[in-house]
Amino acid sequence: MILPSILQSARHYIKQALPPGGFAIDGTVGNGYDTLFLAETTGPSGAVFGFDIQQAALQQARCRLEKAGQLEQVRLFHASHHRMGEELPPRLKGKIHAAMFNLGYLPHGDSSVITRKETTIPALQTALDWLKSGGILTCALYTGHPGGQEEADHVIRFATGLCPKSYQVLWQQLINRKQAPSLVIIEKR
Fold first, then answer.
1. Distance (Å, rounded) from C-alpha 54 to C-alpha 84?
2. Which of 22, 25, 79, 135 is deepest in the core (most CB within 10 A)?
3. CATH number of the domain enclosing 177
């Protein structure tokens, strides 16, 4: 297949912005796949800060990171992503290279626990505030669950409203598949 999936695209863009020794945020840790990708990309001299409201998700991610030998550079927070500004080291404001968000619910977990626009939009704004110039934020949008389309609509509206002098925004969407996931990529200028 020539066209990349949204997750492949997200990783491609993140790799362009996140150098070894860099700083990254995983706004929705989930099962830890993105957290591990960020930890491997930044390496042991960098730092990854991950947020999730579910202890089970954090435990799965911790095990995945430990098994891969990538836990040392990762700090996991049992907190909503909209609280990241309270947890991140203040010295890193304006120095974060990359932020990843995978919205929806924890795969193979409790599907009634979902991300919501009320916390997602403030979290995206906070992550953008902490990004450095040239930093990338990716946000995977899933619409096939209750509340998913509403949240996706708000994220797209938020991203569309960003000042083009400060941000460049791309939206990847399969248009011939009903309820296909999509990806918003934001580059801070």
1. 15
2. 25
3. 3.40.50.150
